[in-house]
Automatic annotation (TrEMBL), chain A:
Protein name, as recorded: GMC family oxidoreductase
Domain Glucose-methanol-choline oxidoreductase N-terminal: residue ranges: 236-351
Name of a matching Pfam family: FAD_binding_3
Organism of origin: Bombella dulcis
Keywords of the record: FAD, Flavoprotein, Oxidoreductase
Entry similarity comment: Belongs to the GMC oxidoreductase family.
SUPFAM superfamilies, sorted: FAD/NAD(P)-binding domain (SSF51905)
Keyword Metal-binding attributed: no
UniProt keyword annotation of Transcription present: no
Domain Glucose-methanol-choline oxidoreductase C-terminal stretches: 458-576
Superkingdom of source: Bacteria
TrEMBL record, chain B:
InterPro entries associated with the record: Cyt_c-like_dom, Cyt_c-like_dom_sf, Cyt_C_IC, Cytochrome_c-type_DH, Membr-bd_ADH_cyt_c
Domain of life: Bacteria
SUPFAM superfamilies per the UniProt record, alphabetical: Cytochrome c
Major location category of this protein: membrane
Protein species of origin: Bombella dulcis
Cofactor: heme c
Database matches in PANTHER family: ALCOHOL DEHYDROGENASE CYTOCHROME C SUBUNIT (PTHR35008:SF8), BLL4482 PROTEIN-RELATED (PTHR35008)
Protein name (Swiss-Prot/TrEMBL): Cytochrome c
Domain Cytochrome c as annotated: residue spans: 200-315, 337-427
Keyword Coiled coil included in the entry's annotation: no
Location of this chain's protein in the cell: Cell membrane
Keywords: Cell membrane, Electron transport, Heme, Iron, Membrane, Metal-binding, Repeat, Respiratory chain, Signal, Transport
Pfam families (alphabetical): Cytochrom_C
Amino acid sequence: MTDDTSRPARPDVLIIGGGWAGSIMAKELTEAGLNVTMLERGHDHSTAVEGTYPASIDELRGVARKRLFQKLSRTSLTIRNRPDQTALPYRQLAAFLPGEGVGGAGLHWSGCHFRATEDDLRLRSVTAERYGENFIPEDMHLQDYGVSYEELEPFFDKAEKVFGTSGEASSVRGQKTGKGNIFAPDRSDHFPLPPMADTFSASVFRAATTDTGYHPFSMPAANASQPYTNPYGCQMGPCNFCGYCSGYACYLYSKASPNVNILPALRRDRRFTLITEAQVLEIMLDDTRKKATGVRYVDLKTRSEKTLEADLVILSAFQLHNVHLMLVSGIGTPYNPVTRTGTIGRNFTYQTITSSRIWLPEDRFTNQFVGAGGAGVAIDDFNQPSFDRGKAGFIGGSPIWVNQSGLKPIAAAQSSGGKEAPRWGSTYKSAMIDQYRHSFAIDAHGSNMAYRDVYLDLDPTWTNAYGQPMLRMTFTWKDNDIRMNQHVVSHIGEIAQAMGATRTSLNSLQPGQSFDSRVYQTTHLNGGVIMGENPKTSALNRYLQSWDVPNLFVIGSSAFPQGMGYNPTGLVAALAYWSAHHIRRTYLRNPGPMVSA
Amino acid sequence: MTPLLSRSTGTKRRPFRRCLMMAGLGLLGLMNASLSARPAQAEEDPLPAGLIEEGHYQAVLGDCAACHTQPGRPAYSGGMPFKLPIGTIYSTNISPDPVHGIGRYSEAEFARAVQLGIRKDGSALYPAMPYPSYARLSKADIHALYVFFQRGVTPQPVDPPANGIIWPLSMRWPLHIWRWLFSPSIQAAQLRTNNQFSDPVLARGAYLVEGPGHCGACHSPRSIALNEKAQTAKDGPLFLSGGGVVEQWVVPSIRQENRTGLGRWSEQDIVAFLRTGRARTGASFGGMTPVIVHSAHAFKDDDLHAIARYLMQLAPARKEKPWVYDPTTTEELRRADVSRPGAQTYIDRCAACHRTDGAGYGTVFPPLAGNPVVMTDDATSLIHIILAGDSTHALRTSASAFTMPSFADTLSDKEIADLVSFIRQSWGNNSKGVKEGAVRRVRQHLPQLETPAQLPKN
């Protein structure tokens, strides 16, 4: 089980990374009768320790001091905006927050649990069909996933049932419910739990967007609206809107996490072994370079280097680490932005997110301490397939939502007043009080496209604590995504008016604006080891199997060809179940490439 | 099954070895021996199909592992410590090792030990081994149990640690007097239990509860001589009407009292509680948890229902005014009236899971409103769980383990006394409050808290 001594000498499967993707794969492959060893670089995490009440809801220890996030003292990455710049290390977590320890980012996430749309999965095809090939900018690497919504639907459904997701279906087996997101594709079943209640802010947004002719719906939340037992027999408590989701282990066991929803079932399985504090340095290949033989890792408990062998290797670390491990292991061809060849590091994308704020009259209280990470009300009118991008001149889109997730005191004090407001003194204080009591945020949470000169590779200068070159990120905002963001944010003004806002602070990306890694935006990083139909433009086939090393599968948002308007976890989970299903059904019977290159 | 032993070839190693034993609860102390290897032939005797499995199930019903399997030691090799005022003693090895375990017991000797409390050498067992209950075991069940312990358990050639009781307290002959006085003969015990019900389900329930399940060992009051005051339903309303305080947990009644017994629990609640350690009416904690973890969760469905139905026909031992939900506290808390002592602490520390209405959340977080263990006369359990915290356990029948944190470091004796009084006097619970001194006394004897590494992983 959890200690090293009892593990089988040679597992059938090695899983690198103990987050959602790794835990799903471990569950599926132990169910298939295989001995699975999961390696996690961080500590074990549990609700009884990290989520112990009331110590868990400590903002200083939690988000401010980054309790559940990656420790940058050992590994980090370097960042630059353009290829002609020199990248520098990301020394303090800010823009994005990878997790560390069992559960990974799946322990500290918020719980927004979306499916992808039909269009998200074949975005190049639908864009060309609707607007013509010429509509796609020359330097944009717009691609299809190689898998359709219809094929993934059973796995979206399975993930929702495992996660205990709360939401409202719009269309179930062709039957319209009259509720939910009318733009969402048909489903085989309802959400396992009813939607989360609206916060006051969400109810105001729901009423105003209804009045202005939009189509509001309850965001699907992997925060349990009621006590729940999932198909693995794992139980969740009900969310009480305490507001400590993102960055915290949920003390009520009501935010889905690998720790609460999958690992209780896995830990009892003799075929499952978890090795914590195991930093994987390399996926080892045999002489042909076509077969993975195992992994080399540092046992951080003993500070010694070890190897483990297995027949099948699943790489399911955080997106950045998946790309890094592919590069340092020499698997596939690194992407070259000049020749536009190679696949590892290609199509790195992010999320185009900006947060605006409105203030209500002083007799209306927004109670921002209340909240739940995945709950809220959204409109998909600027993200849905039939919204005409032709006139607006961009590819992609953004849902707009009020996702009041609980504003904690330190964050409230830091964020108060807006850009021009004083940062101290009585004006600052009264602005902070006013903002905390009467305002709320409205987000445009948008897609992000892939470009020729936005990519990941190995840094030529900086190394991590293990002497390996660090990953280098070359990323900035591009015109298409800035236009998309500006277009969507421009509609927030009319909604604010309908809500009776006394003041509105709209926030959108500006032309020429560069990505700023010092400011928190979101941890939704995608791509770099993408799936697709062509081994020249993708690292993985449609089953997330490496084109180059067929006994290696790479699971996670690293497989997304571009960033969609929704949060990635729902698609990560569905792709993991999809891949596992085909490993079980096809690969195990006949190991080898499941798609011929 | 005497041939099993009579055919043995003896290789004497030590002329005589006495393993002192006794127990906290349910200790099978057996052993001494002039020794011999296990009979080789016995391994070849064909056994009826399923007999070992049946014997294993009997061991589960009797909860043998609870005392004879110590975490970190081989199964049934004993070694579980029981700290008594007269010294620490350890449960014995009941694996079939001929030297260190019970490998040389004939079936008759085994039955005599289990059912009458007499070891192979003729000396008496400490009555913490619940042989007065086991006396009710049928011959067939004893046979299956014997076969399991001889053939289904791996012999463990290890001794438990030496007991630490010094003479004259270590003398055993007085125990025979206790045995003569308080332990029934097998025939009398079986007659008394077996003839109570014509309904086969209730009859099975009676057999399980009064016999192998030995529920009365904890749940029935004991007299000054430590005998259970009642051993069967026939013996009157003291049976299962609540035991004393064991390791600072109050053992509640499991009869039909409305407030402090199982009067408001359905058959399904009792079944769910025994099978998973949690029901909508309450969750297992304290001394009941090991019973569920070791054995009750693995009882067959029919047996769980039989136990529940049997318990549900045990008339209340005391008349109690029925518990009725009183919304006053809920309304106070919801309008932020925290003027009552303990109310603010309740809001800050407890209400997130147990709610302002005290109703809890299903089988995840147990209710405090109307929960029998909250309303017992003695509030020790409530004080204890607030100080120490506790967890429901991950089981095959219920994967998730939920942890209530310890408040020993964050709340003072006064705060806990106020809080306990608040809980006991809210939502219709109407039980008497407690003083600071009661909390201090429990705190002084608090067992060592679990370390983070020992806590459940989900």
